[in-house]
Amino acid sequence: MAFSVELEEWVGSVWHRFITRRASPDFPEARVELSSMQRPLAVLFRAMGGASAVAVEAASARELVLRRSLLQQVAGTCQQLPLAWCDASHLRLPPSLAVYPEVALNRELYRWLALLAAEAGEMRHWARDNQRWTRQLLQRYPALRPRYQRLVEALLPLRPDPSQLGKDEAALELALRKALGEPGSVERFPRSERAPWPLPLWLYPAECLGEPQASDLGEEAEGNLQAPSAEQQVARKRAKRVEESTSKGGLLLFRLENLFSWAEHVDLDRCGDDSEDIDAARVAEDLDELALSRQRQRKGGGLKLHLDLPPADSDDVPLGAGIKLPEWDYRRQCLQEDFVNLQPMLPQGSAAQPLPPRLAPLARRLRRQFEHLRTDRQWLRQQPQGSELDMQAWLDFHVERQHGQCAERGLFLEQRQNRRDLACLLLADLSMSTDAHLDNEHRVIEVITDSLLLFGEALAAVGDEFALYGFSSLRRQQVRMQELKTFAQRYDDVTRGRIQALKPGYYTRMGAAIRQATRLLGACKQRRKLLLLVTDGKPNDLDLYEGRYGVEDTRQAVLEARQQGLLPFCITIDREAGDYLPYMFGANGYTLIRQPQQLPLRLPQLYRQLTQA
């Protein structure tokens, strides 16, 4: 019996691979993955005028009403296909392309879609708009015409034969072929009950993901939301709201003799009812549509411990009633005044503590290095008197005298004590993602804590004015800013105790934290002002702050800081930071620490480089 079952499974798997391969219209040997071209495509899209905050991501398959061949119907394939589309926040491209039998053509198709998306605007009519965008792109860049023609000529033989289609479908297919070959030549398209076979050279209407905001799910659901890990899939699912029936009516028919008698009753271990389903993530990936309901099935015997906010007796200590701050809405291109409430806080249970002994050797070395900056001396040029001759000033004087011009200038160099006239404010990201483990021994929050401690030791040695803050957020009403050291406070055991009492918080509303840091730095009298941000990811929150909204608000906050004469600089350990930080902080406004364990040592070194530049 076991042998027959194994034989049946083997035959079934062989048949599945055979029929799927025969029914697929793709060319697997020429397949090109989006992951191998994602970064170049993003650069091409933005270089051609696409919005800098639009992310290039993989598109999920969508259902299409197509005429499938007999083999495709037997194999159950081609019911869902990934299509390229673009909206204000995302450029979604198929996760892989195997449309053409040549790898070069599939790569060229990816580039064409990125170029077309940069030219595209709001879509009102799928076929007419794609023709118009294609025509404009070819007119603006005539060198693209041969490439486009190669893609069209190689695609037409692969499309369905109009002679084998119905009357309406054949007319629509002929019109699409003409529109591909001569963009802009077709204004009216015949109607057909079935959709045409997908055109990989065109963009499709933006898919309505129906992603509800977390606030729509009720407060109970929000407490269960967690930040996605780096290993999870980034493909999004369509979602729909469903209302569960509250009626308890209905007819249940059963036979009484089917019930267990008392003698037949057996004890069952039902602990599995309250356990987590380890296959839930895999099942969710296979689903095309996720249904969300306000009603929640509570687990028997379950206890909800992680609430949106901790109780008052265990929460951090608030300082004041909160500060109202604006926030940038890129959709309306305006600042929303008093939109965010920022709450200054002190870490709970922060008693004065000395520097941990494990950091003492490194702290002594950093203090010795930074103490030398106090005694750095600076050479002043063109002085009327000094210890050495200024050769450059003497050469300028000699050349000017040869030409009949003799301006008075000093010809000596004088060495004077260098006065460091600068202030620095360090913002540390304390969101829940910092609770993740880097390895078996270190968590992100521990690395950030060590970095703050050593940073404070180094700056206390050099004598620069500095302040230390941490931040996290839970929607716009609760942006939490941990006060570790203000400009007026000394760096002592009280500050060290506050740093060591830090705990991971909630989410990352960067814009509000940067604006408050800008206000604090703006009140300093120093000439040079440095704003450092240490983070492990991109801006996000439970509300609209996720995605482009948060990126645009953070970018606007950075621009506001620069307008006030500050130097914002971001230090990150996120390996995907190159996709969004250049847009927010500029190409030279951030650095990536590829080995996060080195952050405590690298942070003071970066400060030294930035302040000596």
From TrEMBL:
Query: Which InterPro entries does UniProt cross-reference here?
Result: NorD/CobT (IPR051928), VWF_A (IPR002035), vWFA_dom_sf (IPR036465)
Record domain VWFA: where? 421-610
Which PANTHER family does the annotation name?
NORD PROTEIN (PTHR41248:SF1)
Q: What is this protein called?
A: Nitric oxide reductase activation protein NorD
Source organism of this protein record? Pseudomonas zhanjiangensis
